[in-house]
Specification:
- The chain is of the alpha+beta class.
- Helices cover about 30% and strands about 10% of the residues.
- The protein is built from four helices and three strands; from the N terminus they run βαβαβαα.
- Strands 2-1-3 form a three-stranded mixed beta sheet.
- β1, α1 and β2 (about 60) form a beta-alpha-beta unit.
- The chain is globular, with a radius of gyration of 16 Å.
């Protein structure tokens, strides 16, 4: 990966972006959300996932869940809550292979993920304030 050189310089729209969500870890059910070390996000996401427990979403963790696609946003201090999914065979068989096809998708898991992500996006958009951010690295 390319290394950052020098300080991060934000642009005007940086202040308008509350979070970046990326669901890119396969086709399994979403079981939790990782808030990438941002303790201020834990109670917010615990409240948001409470109504979704019957769908199997039960965990909020401080562990980072930001895959490569959202790393530049995380480096710029923007929250990048990431989902924790059942791994199925994603890392062992299908990831970036010719086996990564629609036939491997599980419709019920996709419906569950759609409800989860719609809920998280809606709650993020409807907040009166931006999601809490970690300080920018120096």
């Amino acid at each position: 990966m390319r290394q950052r050189v020098g300080p991060i310089v934000t642009k005007p729209d940086h202040a308008r972006l509350s979070a970046v969500y990326n669901v890119d870890l396969g086709a399994g059910r979403i079981r939790g959300v990782g808030v990438s070390g941002n303790a201020a996000l834990v109670p917010i996401f615990e409240q948001w996932i409470a109504p979704l427990r019957d769908l199997g979403l039960t965990l909020v963790t401080m562990r980072p869940r930001c895959a490569g696609d959202c790393r530049p946003f995380a480096d710029a201090g923007i929250p990048t809550p990431g989902v924790i999914q059942d791994p199925l065979e994603y890392d062992t068989r299908t990831h970036h292979t010719n086996s990564d096809t629609y036939e491997r998708l599980i419709p019920e898991d996709l419906r569950q993920a759609s409800v989860v992500m719609a809920t998280l996006l809606y709650n993020t958009a409807m907040r009166d304030q931006m999601l809490p951010r970690l300080p920018l690295p120096q």
